[in-house]
Amino acid sequence: KNQVEQSPQSLIILEGKNCTLQCNYTVSPFSNLRWYKQDTGRGPVSLTIMTFSENTKSNGRYTATLDADTKQSSLHITASQLSDSASYICVVSAGTSGTYKYIFGTGTRLKVLA
Amino acid sequence: GAGVSQSPRYKVAKRGQDVALRCDPISGHVSLFWYQQALGQGPEFLTYFQNEAQLDKSGLPSDRFFAERPEGSVSTLKIQRTQQEDSAVYLCASSLSPISNQPQHFGDGTRLSIL
Asked: In this complex, which of B43, B105, B108 lies closest to A104 when CB atoms are compared?
């Protein structure tokens, strides 16, 4: 069964600190892996998209890694800001050309405190 | 507009009523998705359109749920005879094409509450 699991479920850090969120998946056939940021009451916003051949991708203070062998991904946030408080959702796309399924994790809720 | 627009933002209905949720995707986007998001959970897939064709409706939870995109742009998700378990946020997303590495652009959702 296609599954995406994220950890931790929630996380509290102080402003300026770094943190790393984890995503493990069992999805076949793998197409790509995405990280989204979802603010409360808003729709998810794409941070990164990585294909099988990419093992790291950055977007400002966000850096995602992908290990396709172990089926693990991480999202590292550097020098956190109060505005980073949100849910971070890992999404794995499964399928072949033209037909895709997007399997969402339940997210990690990050709270950044001043 | 520049982004995906959903209306209404909030909808309260009595159990048994029918509701219709609207999604205006980004102009020119071929792919359109509907998701259901329960509180504290990730979005769950409902249905997928490529232009006006509904290619996948495997996530619709029952035959009370119906979606359409008649002209390949605006889409409507209809729920008939609503039940309390239908209470959730309904998200719409669009992407430029069916190519796998295209980002999905989400609307801010419709929060549906069934009393």
From this structure: B43
- Candidates B100, B103, B109; nearest CB to A43: B109
Q: For residue B16, which amino acid is it?
A: G
Q: Give the per-residue pLDDT at B98.
A: 78
Instruction: Compute the distance between CA of residue B110 and CA of residue B21 in angstroms, rounded to an integer.
Output: 7
Task: List CB contacts (< 8 A) between A45 and chain B.
Answer: 106
Strand A45-51 versus strand A56-59 pairing type? unpaired
Q: What is the pLDDT along chain A (114 residues), one digit of tens a residue?
A: 789 999 999 999 999 999 999 999 998 888 899 999 999 999 999 999 998 889 999 999 999 999 999 999 999 999 999 999 999 999 998 876 656 788 999 999 999 999
Provide the Cα torsion B22, B24, B25, B29; round to 10°.
Answer: 110
Residue of A nearest to B39 (CA): A106
Q: Do A100 and B100 touch (CB under 8 A)?
A: yes
Lookup result for tokens 């029952």: B62
CB A75 within 8 A of CB A88: yes
